[in-house]
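Tutorial sheet, problem 5. The four components below are modelled jointly, 1352 residues in total.
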Amino acid sequence: MFFASDNAAPCPPEVMAALSAVNQGFAMPYGNDAHTARAVDVIRTLFEAPEAAVYFVSTGTVANCLSLATVSPLWGAVFCHTNAHVQEDECGAPEVFTGGKLLLVPGAHGRMEPAALDKAIRAQKPGVVHSVQPGAVTLTNITEGGTLYSVAETRAIADVAKAHGLPLHLDGARFANAVAASGATPAELTWKAGVDIVSFGGTKGGLMGAEAVIFFNPEKAFEFELRRKRSGHLFSKTRYLAAQFEGWIEGGRWLDHARHANAMAARLAEGLAKIEGVTVAPEAAANILFVKLPAATVGRLREAGAVFYLRGDDYARLVTSWATTEEDCDRFIALASE
Amino acid sequence: MFFASDNAAPCPPEVMAALSAVNQGFAMPYGNDAHTARAVDVIRTLFEAPEAAVYFVSTGTVANCLSLATVSPLWGAVFCHTNAHVQEDECGAPEVFTGGKLLLVPGAHGRMEPAALDKAIRAQKPGVVHSVQPGAVTLTNITEGGTLYSVAETRAIADVAKAHGLPLHLDGARFANAVAASGATPAELTWKAGVDIVSFGGTKGGLMGAEAVIFFNPEKAFEFELRRKRSGHLFSKTRYLAAQFEGWIEGGRWLDHARHANAMAARLAEGLAKIEGVTVAPEAAANILFVKLPAATVGRLREAGAVFYLRGDDYARLVTSWATTEEDCDRFIALASE
Amino acid sequence: MFFASDNAAPCPPEVMAALSAVNQGFAMPYGNDAHTARAVDVIRTLFEAPEAAVYFVSTGTVANCLSLATVSPLWGAVFCHTNAHVQEDECGAPEVFTGGKLLLVPGAHGRMEPAALDKAIRAQKPGVVHSVQPGAVTLTNITEGGTLYSVAETRAIADVAKAHGLPLHLDGARFANAVAASGATPAELTWKAGVDIVSFGGTKGGLMGAEAVIFFNPEKAFEFELRRKRSGHLFSKTRYLAAQFEGWIEGGRWLDHARHANAMAARLAEGLAKIEGVTVAPEAAANILFVKLPAATVGRLREAGAVFYLRGDDYARLVTSWATTEEDCDRFIALASE
Amino acid sequence: MFFASDNAAPCPPEVMAALSAVNQGFAMPYGNDAHTARAVDVIRTLFEAPEAAVYFVSTGTVANCLSLATVSPLWGAVFCHTNAHVQEDECGAPEVFTGGKLLLVPGAHGRMEPAALDKAIRAQKPGVVHSVQPGAVTLTNITEGGTLYSVAETRAIADVAKAHGLPLHLDGARFANAVAASGATPAELTWKAGVDIVSFGGTKGGLMGAEAVIFFNPEKAFEFELRRKRSGHLFSKTRYLAAQFEGWIEGGRWLDHARHANAMAARLAEGLAKIEGVTVAPEAAANILFVKLPAATVGRLREAGAVFYLRGDDYARLVTSWATTEEDCDRFIALASE
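Model answer (structure tokens):
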């Protein structure tokens, strides 16, 4: 009954198999090998983006920070949701990498309101040296609030960004869950909706520690490579990052895993909602659930070995993953029902 | 016949096995899991340093840069060899991470001369704001020149650093080869000789992409953790970095691999030295060899599929690894003899 | 009728005289001269702080940024008001200098609410690497909203900061006006109320471009000096910064000027408040006034040569200075009354 | 007998007069005033560069650092002489501002050898992420060694820079002395010889603390303005920086002062060269002189009140300024002759 985070799950078999498969002989380092080239192609195909520049890095924080630093100037404002991961959980790394400043855009349940974004951008004055200059917009899908930006909602944000000439980045730490939840294709949920750069998360979906950064416009690709190197994020044995993605995507396993995780959250939601005294926040769209539980229930669950985080005393965040079982969900529900 | 670098080799079986072994169930993220704790203990035991703070990161560049940034102030000078990896191959990352400046110390074949180090430190003026302040010393063992700092030579550098109150860092990207070449223990070649922080390289010795940073004095451990996080280098699934080290060290395989690599280089050296027109630089102590080859020989070798870097037209750098075979060495020698 | 800002006024005669007075012969550079030592003493005496470290710099932005960078760690959160100068008007410089992050504290009319500050600090988790760590608190007095923190209000903020072990910085770009408005002494309004570091503004009070940074605890003085140097802010001919302060403070002229500026604002407020259709924001405590004016009045005033900034179409910010005359105020009032 | 540095001299009367002249009434801040516009024009005219972007800052360090940061990328190598001010006397500021790395070019007496510069640039590999990328070249004229780059020598350096597509910056802290020594015009010694950006020093030539940065190609002017602001170097009362330049340049006083300073150094050189046991380095071209003096002579001079720096025990650096008198020179010579 582990619901603390999807980053605590092990790796699915196809990922381990892919690692073994590339563990043969010598391979040129720093991405100049056939395995890496193949994985890049797999991702280009998945996103229907044959020209995209694709890079593998090892953490979500650096995927976000390098992406933003590449497209926003040193004096740039990066507009993000008030509770975005870049704002709350990256220890100031976005400011360090970009040189600029995060400016916060409100919105319910982790989603920026397009009108609020427009207002925030307008408040900065391009051409006036006293304030940072509009630099980029970043949205998270699935959001920290467990909600989804649909294709239309993504497009609405992109329209505001484009109206101000700003690039749009997507923090897709849980992009697989967003694709599964939306029913859209990766392309529809990104470049077709106006997204320019994606941090395509693998770790929370089952990889050991691998994220792909995708620039649909490869113009600044070499700048990204220099930034990756000088932040210590260029792997020599890139094949082992690339292989994880290849194994995970081939055959559509990445999406199967995400669908499973989302289904487990739905199962939890459905079961918990029936319990008196328990309130399930209705906005959950994917694999993150917020549930108000009586204090006694919290205690009982934890005693029984359930692992999850609380906000305050009684507001539980439950996160499911590819490795969550129906049995765990049902047991959790049963314990909460007692 | 792959002699371009030891970072192009695959991973030995025990590393793959260790990854499989930890790929079970959920584990708390960010290093708070039993696997990581166990690997930390393995390294503490190996270095006879039960109090040491030990961290796992994924690249040698970041191991060096985070180490130096933690112990040298923003305005600090880091003294290194003229051709050190931090100076020549990290794209300015040490300056970015530390905030300071590298100052170069000459010395033959990649080894700093203690007297030259002393002179360089004295040239900076502590307490005078116009110049950077002495911050730290870093040496590389095995050096970029393929040479070894013996225990005594390490101690000589440490004595100079200590006389000026400076911490001593060791870039140990090929520390395994240094231990193998010196016959000393890890402790003797580090803290017993005055080294304060080690970048203990795993990648070049056979890991997928894993380095350990060891602070023998754990005083600044939390600062290191914050710096690791804000540079995007904190893995959530730390167990997969830790396991690589555990599998590699348990049973002494790490040292067996290094001894093998060193032996392959010695085999090459011995065979090549006998060939007329070929000159083997005599300083090689481990798994890096510099060899002057006739241009025709270079062409013949490359045609036959040998992979190696040249400096100028005829000065080859040959690097062996755990995966280098006797057959490859002998074939290379045979081709060079034709 | 120049009410755009107090930084557009010329220098009063005693400042020019002081510059002439020190313009004699050679003087050791970089602050090692008798003139600078004397001005340091003048400020120590003014603040009843004989042990304070006092430095002269040329802009308010750098006074704030160097102060905060010296006391808040690289990963530090600096808590400031939502509309503080450091947040809105320094183009991201505080993040660049400190390495950290500004976190915003609400409060009416430019003043942080102590309870809101406490809540904001508590929201950061010391010891958790995912978020920036509480680093420092900065308040502005006179605030950007034209309001005053009284001694008691300053103390209330300081109490919160101290409860969390955080240093308290005062952005005193208009500190002279605050002293004049409060009736307190400089010591009462700073260290006696719990302030640790002051950016003591001279420029807006009549100097050419000179600010003093005061550390009541001189422990980190040398760090400040290094930071000043490496940001290009160490003047060689420091005597010319120091002399401005000396001339301005000796004889109490600095406070006379501030009292005059405050009186001019009060005169404006009184006159404008009587006009139908004009609303004077009642919180103004010193030399900044916010006034709602009919659009026609704005047009008439500007046509007649009045210079001032608008927020929106009709909300004027009027700033008075030592050089503002009664005539200008009365003429402005008369024009607004037509 | 003050020969420690030209930055210890007072300001000449025309500078004080110019300050008084602009100290009238209100003036729009941040450079948007008529005084500043006028001084910009004066400098454009002086350099025969009507399109140049001209900015006023307060220290030489920041003039250099902002110039280089504007034209060299974050991952750029800035090539400079081994003993350049940016390398030895700016506490690492150039690395902080540019984000890059200084790479050192040897050459006798402070002048880079063109061939050595070419070699240093070639050693960096454009397009290879492991090393910093060629970013800019900076030369100093008058050099730290007291020597001059003639127009032809400047052109030789520029030719190398241009061949590699690199911008050329001139650290002209003593540019006035270089113009005086060379007999060339400012234009001939800068853009006509291939210089792209100049730090035109005023402070060492008699100003209180004012330097002008000149971009002959104004393309990156706004970037410079943003960098100036976010490093805390944008003055509100810019008129007082601008006026100093205007007063100093109008009527050619700046050059008269430089000629005087150079003549005083020549007078010293001539007198000292005649003394037995004293050796005057023959390369001196302007207002810096290196003189080997017997230890007893050093002691006698200092006892008599002469102020100068020594390198080692007996190698004196003597710097003259606009304020150095013939009497001081002759007295120094006389004391050295005893």
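Marking note: The mean pLDDT of chain A is 97. Full credit if you identified this.
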